[in-house]
Write a structure and sequence with these properties.
The complex is a heterodimer of chains A (473) and B (399). Chain A is mainly beta and 473 residues long. Chain A has 4 domains: 4-128, no CATH class; 131-139 and 146-265, no CATH class; 269-342, no CATH class; 347-471, no CATH class. Chain A is built from 4 helices and 30 strands. Chain A has helices at 182-185, 190-194, 198-220, 278-281; strands at residues 4-11, 30-33, 37-45, 50-61, 64-72, 83-86, 93-99, 107-114, 118-128, 131-141, 147-158, 164-173, 233-238, 241-246, 250-252, 257-269, 271-277, 286-292, 307-314, 320-328, 336-342, 347-365, 371-373, 385-402, 408-415, 419-424, 429-432, 435-442, 447-459, 467-471. In chain A, the strands form 5 sheets. In chain A, strands 3, 4, 6, 9, 12, 13, 14 and 15 form an 8-stranded mixed sheet that branches. Chain A is elongated and about 110 Å long. Chain B has one helix at residues 330-337, and strands spanning 4-11, 27-30, 34-40, 48-57, 60-68, 79-82, 95-102, 108-115, 119-128, 132-142, 148-159, 165-171, 178-182, 187-199, 201-207, 213-215, 220-221, 224-230, 245-252, 258-266, 274-281, 285-300, 303-316, 322-329, 346-349, 368-375, 386-398. Chain B is an all-beta fold and 399 residues long. Classes of the chains: A mainly beta (473), B mainly beta (399). Chains A and B meet through α3, β16, β19, β20 and β22 of A and β5, β7, β8 and β22 of B.
Chain lengths: 473, 399
């Protein structure tokens, strides 16, 4: 049910001037005509509750002052954003003023001065809230886990209170800055729209079914009895954002949502890595699916918007196994897609602290600013003093047992705060100044042990706050 | 009672071009039944239901409506896939899903499906379903001398999803697939595997930190008895990780029957790992633990070494010889005699340690000391020989 109307007003009764020297508008008895929308375009942002609506209508104008009324009862339009433009007769038409009557919220008047009698096409733009979109992805790995069928979808939700029929839909991927929320600027909140009543909801739903069946048939140029192709989505860059434009037009009734494919199924090469990163994944070894959003991987035509990824795998028994559901953040073209599948019960990973010892112990002599090293032999047992510095050694063994039946690639990152020496024969590298990274390959059935020693300088021995690598091969 | 409904709407009349004529449309609704259902239980926390239906389609655009009531289907996980024809059959229809629409305030969705001709298509609908959960239980029957046991593993399916499933394939990700009917609010327990002649190792362990004291004033330690099963092929297991679940343990009584001797939660046990099952307390093995020596030796200033001797007086009143495993946390010993300094303990084994074989290095860590003591059976007169063992720990560089 349409709630937004544009009326042309004609004075037929007792006229009361409403503040304009150029015309009068009746307060109680009006005659109006209601021009329909010709086209409507929705540009929907997913980072904010914001949609830019651009609609065109044809109106007939007479020479002189033409009052136009635009109202949007029970919708979520930001009144400060409503604009009127003339697409034809631009030089002969002018908006003299815009009035927001105190007594009638969700309504405005334009006084339009025309230099001609005849038809003009106008464009009305405004921001509304209550329309949003989201992305989601369905990934099905093959049984061998060498490639994954990648499909992307967009889903448009319309809770705006308004029906938009045959609308061109454009989706903006990216984060824009807003200083005020559109829903706050609109005169009623989203919850009020939701509370409009079940009868109205049912009525909208019925109409939506009606609209969706016919509008889609019309927009594609095919009848219901013809095979139709799935709509394409055109993807193009726009400033810092990406714009997805859905082919043709869509009708998404109020209260409904509609999901369409944004990435047609493609086979994407898959890499599996096992990671131990305590900061990111907790104290566990997790299995990762790694892919890349690039042309070489049959993707890379656009960034992948934020969304939920649902990962399945062909279980080899004419069915699927559900592996994981995970949110991903915006993935630019060329960037890596990382999916955490959780712990693999076929790969056992245990961290064992094998031994602890201390050396390079320093004593601060009581009553003096003098430090003596305990193991240099020049300090008497009965010297009064307290421990002021030492090195704490810990010897670790990370046991890995691979029962997965395939060789695995392992990456271990350990965050080691403080002044640390990492002694190993593993070819470890620094991921950052306090994080050590070790990689290894473990063949099928292998029991591997990754051994290293961590020396922590404590007290007065702590001179830095970083990790130094020492290769002991 | 089936609560999931799949409806196809086929337009029988000519196509109407305007919404105003919509009310004049004549609709035929078909209700395709399930042809096949598979319940995939291989995910630790989620249950995936896959059902196949044969959907009649007309040439052009069809609406396929899927609705559910009073079930916890996650609508965001619903997949609709058109299955290819079996090999050798001609592909009769080209079928494409154009879009999915979600009505407000309703557990339903509508697929718009385009078909190249009129005919039927086999589709598979998959979704995650809540309140259809699985768990595992075990029943172990040990032989009379407790050297082997028969381990039966059961899967227990609880269907509180408010949806009945007729003959349905069930698969846990390992083991056999079952074809069973699962009714609403039904719990179904199915035998998955039966492992015969599984060697069992019986252990007696004392660990003051983990198992505590049976009689604290008399310093008598609790001596739990465990059954230990190794999940590998050499021990007649090793086909898959053993899932977490309750293990009820019985023992053949030698008279053709069995007796229940205890139960424990079996932890998730990967391949090649051991499942330790606490069966009960062995009160015929008496272990008294005392600190025999606590001596501090100053190195310099506030820096000390400390020597601690823990004494174990052990009596085995059982009629057979056993091995007692003795575990101690060095940090707990230090905290007991000095207090907690917040630091790990640097230590070494002292010469007064009496355990033959010394430290069990395969089980000991920077903090945990594991040793073993072989104990003879009680004498013919019923008396037990008291064995005294000492654990000598030198705690170093403390302050």
């Amino acid at each position: 049910m349409r709630r937004m109307t544009l009326c042309q007003l004609f004075v037929i009764g007792l006229a009361i001037a409403v503040g304009s020297a150029t015309g009068t508008r009746a307060e109680n008895v009006d005659l109006s005509t209601v021009p329909d929308r010709n086209t409507v375009q929705l540009t929907i942002y997913n980072s904010e509750d914001l949609t830019l609506v651009r609609e065109t209508r044809k109106i007939s104008l007479k020479r002189g002052i033409n009052p136009l009324q635009f109202s949007w009862a029970n919708t979520l339009i930001d009144p400060t954003s409503v604009e009127l433009k003339f697409l034809t007769h631009r030089d002969e038409l002018e908006v003299l003023d815009t009035t927001f009557p105190h007594a009638k919220p969700q309504l405005l008047y334009w006084n339009v001065e025309s230099e001609f009698d005849g038809e003009a096409t106008i464009e009305i733009t405004y921001f509304t809230s209550g329309i949003r979109w989201s992305a989601d992805y369905v990934l099905v790995a093959d049984q061998d886990e060498t490639k994954i069928a990648f499909e992307g979808f967009v889903r448009v939700f319309n809770d705006s209170g308004e029906e938009y029929e045959d609308a061109q839909v454009r989706l903006v991927v990216g984060e824009i800055n807003l200083v005020e929320r559109i829903a706050q600027l609109a005169s009623i909140g989203t919850k009020d729209v939701a509370d409009l009543g079940k009868a109205a909801t049912v009525r909208w739903k019925k109409e939506a079914v009606k609209y969706s069946m016919f509008a889609d048939a019309d927009s594609s140029g095919a009848g219901l009895g013809e095979m139709r192709e799935e709509k394409g989505i055109i993807k193009e860059g726009l400033s810092e954002y990406f714009l997805f434009t859905i082919d043709g037009t869509e009708t998404i009734a109020n209260g409904w949502s509609k999901r369409m494919r944004s990435v047609k199924p493609v086979d994407v090469p898959l890499k599996i890595q096992y990671r131990y990163r305590e900061v990111e994944y907790g104290s566990q070894l997790v299995r990762m699916y790694l892919m890349r959003n690039d042309v070489g991987s049959n993707l890379g035509t656009s960034p992948l918007p934020d969304g939920i990824v649902r990962v399945f795998r062909d279980n080899g028994r004419d069915g699927l196994s559900f592996l994981a559901s995970q949110s991903i953040n915006y993935i630019p073209i060329g960037d890596e897609i990382e999916l955490n599948l959780g712990v693999d019960s076929e790969v056992v990973f245990e961290l064992v602290k094998g031994r602890v010892w201390r050396d390079h112990i320093w004593i601060k002599v009581d009553g003096a600013d003098v430090f003596r090293r305990v193991d240099d032999g020049n300090i008497a047992v009965d010297v009064r003093g307290s421990v002021a510095g030492w090195d704490e050694h810990a010897y670790y063994i990370q046991h890995v047992r691979n029962f997965s039946g395939k060789p695995i690639e392992l990456e271990i990152r350990r965050l080691l705060p403080g002044h640390v020496v990492f002694r190993n024969g593993l070819g470890a590298v620094l991921h950052d100044y306090q994080t050590v990274q070790v990689t290894a390959k473990v063949t099928a059935g292998q029991r591997a042990q990754i051994r290293y020693e961590v020396v922590q300088h404590m007290g007065r021995n702590e001179k830095q706050a970083n990790v130094k690598l020492v290769d002991i091969r | 009672m089936q609560r999931l409904i799949l409806v196809t709407l086929a337009v029988l009349t000519a196509c109407f071009a305007t919404p105003e004529t919509a009310s004049a449309r004549i609709k035929l609704i078909t209700l395709p039944v399930r042809e096949r259902v598979e319940i995939q239980l291989d995910n630790a926390t989620a249950t995936l239901v896959e059902e196949e239906r044969i959907v009649p389609l007309v040439k052009g655009v069809n609406q396929v409506d899927f609705s559910w009531a009073n079930t916890q289907i996650d609508p965001n996980t619903i997949l609709f896939r058109v299955l290819p024809r079996p090999d050798g059959e001609v592909e009769a229809l080209e079928v494409k899903v154009l879009s999915v629409s979600y009505p407000p305030n309703e557990n339903a969705l509508v697929w718009q499906v385009a078909a190249s001709g009129s005919g039927s298509a086999r589709v598979r609908i998959s979704y995650l379903l809540g309140n259809l959960t699985k768990s595992f239980t075990y029943r172990a029957v040990a032989d009379h001398d407790e050297s082997t046991l028969v381990l039966s593993q059961y899967i227990r399916l609880q269907n509180f999803a408010n949806e009945a499933f007729g003959s349905t394939g069930l698969w846990a990700g390992f083991g056999p697939r079952f074809l069973k009917a699962v009714g609403i609010n039904e719990t179904k327990q199915i035998l998955m595997e039966k492992h015969e002649n599984v060697p069992v190792r019986k252990t007696y362990t004392v660990d003051a930190t983990e198992f505590g004291y049976l009689d604290r004033p008399k310093n008598k330690l609790t001596v739990p008895m465990h059954y230990v099963l190794k999940n590998d092929k050499a021990n007649k297991l090793g086909q898959a990780p053993l899932q977490f679940g309750k293990v009820r343990i019985f023992q053949e009584d030698g008279r053709g029957s069995t007796a229940f001797i205890g139960e424990d939660w079996g932890k998730f046990t990967p391949l090649d790992d051991e499942m330790r099952l606490y069966v009960g307390t062995a009160q015929d093995v008496v272990v008294v633990r005392t600190i025999d020596k606590n001596e501090q030796k100053r190195i310099v200033g506030s820096l000390y070494n400390r020597e601690v001797i823990v004494k174990f007086e052990i009596e085995n009143f059982k009629d057979r010889a056993i091995t007692l495993d003795i575990a101690e946390s060095v940090r707990a010993i230090r905290n007991e005699v000095v207090g907690d300094t917040g630091r790990d303990v640097e230590w070494e084994l002292g010469p007064a340690t009496t355990f033959a074989g010394g430290l069990d290095k395969s089980q000991s860590t920077f903090d945990k000391v594991v040793l073993h003591a072989d104990l003879d059976a009680r004498g013919a007169d019923g008396t037990a020989k008291k064995v005294i063992h000492k654990l000598h720990i030198i705690i170093k560089n403390e302050w």
